[in-house]
Description:
The protein folds into three domains: 84-151, no CATH class; 171-272, no CATH class; 283-388, no CATH class. It contains 16 helices and five strands. The chain is elongated, with a radius of gyration of 35 Å. The chain is of the alpha/beta class. Helix 7 packs across helix 8, helix 8 crosses helix 9 and helix 14 packs antiparallel against helix 16. A hairpin with a 2-residue loop joins strand 2 and strand 3.
Amino acid sequence: MAAGAPAEVETPVGFIPQNLPAAPIDINTPYSVLRSIVSPSTPCDVEPPSETCVNIPATTVSSPTLSISTISDLTPTEFGEVEHSQEQTTAHHDTFYFEDGNVEIVCGDTVFRVHSTIISYSSSKLRDILSPPSLLSAPMLEGRPRITVSDSAEDFAVLLKMIYTPGFLGRKKVPNFSIFASLLRMTTKYGFSDVREGLVEDLEAAYPTKWEDFETAKIIGKNIFGSPKPHPNAVLNLLLEQRVRFALPFAAYRAGLGGSSALSTSKPGIALPRPILASIIHGMGEIRRMMTHAAYGIVYVGNLRVCPEKACVLNVGINPAERRVEALKKISDVMVKKSEGDVLSSLSFGNLVCTDCANLLKYGHRDCCKELVWAKLPSLLGWESWEGI
Ligand SMILES: [Zn+2]
C-alpha cells in the first residue's frame, strides 16, 4: 500500500457500488449528478417514480462464504432435495398420490406419487423417463426422486388412470371430449399405439373421408363424444395438434357450420389459428355459393317433371302456371336456405310438393353434395383433393 493513502476500510460484502469513477468525488456534488455517475442507466433515473422502483444489482446480494464443517451443515437443497418453497406451491393429486409410491412426478403445480415399476412396465417411453440414471439425477423429496414432465395434470391423471385401471380401456362408448383429448395426447406421446388406434377408429366413423362412409355413418362429428359435447373448434384444434390428418377436412367443415362469429372466437381452447380460420371462412363461402347456384339449376333447369300427382303443386294440368311458378320459388328458397346451413344434411320440403317430386329434388341435391361439396372439403384447409391429405 502506498504511503499516505487512506487506510483501507473493509467494505462489507454486498455494499460495493459498481461503476465508481476513478477520480475522487467532490463532496458538494448534487445528489442527482452523483446518482448519474454511480449508476448512469438504471430505470430509476430515467422515469419519475410513479411507483416504487427497486433496482438491486445482482452483485449487491452476494452470498456469504459458506463454511461447512460437518455434513449436517448442508441444507436439504444441497443434498438435492427440492426446496421447501417449491413444495408449498404444489398440491398432491387427489387420486394418484400413493403413500407407498417410490417416485414423484410433477405436472405444473400437481404432484403424483406413483410406482416406478408399474409406470415403466406400461411403456418404453415412460421407462426412459424413469430410468435409473434419470432418477439418480433427479431432485429428492422425502427420499423419493421427483421428476417433472411437461404434460398438464389433467392429461397425466388420465394416463395414470389408463395404466392403473385396465378396465378403463374396455370401454364401449367414446369418452367425453376432455378425456378423449387427454388419451389421444398421452397415448401418442408415450407410445401406447394400440390404445391410440382405438381412438382413431372412433374418429374414422364420425369424421369420414369418403362420401359413402358419410352417408352410412350413424353418428357424425362431435356427437360421438359423451357429454358435454365439445365445441367443433376444439375438436379441430385437437386434430390439428395431434396431426390426425384424415379427419381434418370434415372437422373443418363441421367447425365452418358455426359461421364466422363462432369460428373467430378468441376463447382459449377454441380459438383457431388465423390461417386456418381464414381458409375455412373462404372455403365455406365457396361451398355456399356453389350450392346456391346448384339449387337454381336443380329447380329451374334440370330434373323437375310435370307432376301427374293431383295433390302436387307441380301438376301443371290442375294448377295454373302462376301457382307452379310460385311453388318453384318456394322450393328454390328451401334449397338456398339449406346451402346457408349444413348443406350435407338431408333436405325437407314438408308439404310443399308430393313425395315423388320431393325425392327427385333430394336426389338432385344429393348428387351435388356428393360430386361438388365432398370434393371441396379438403380445400377448407388448403388441400386440393382428398388424395393430397
Ligand atoms: Zn309432385
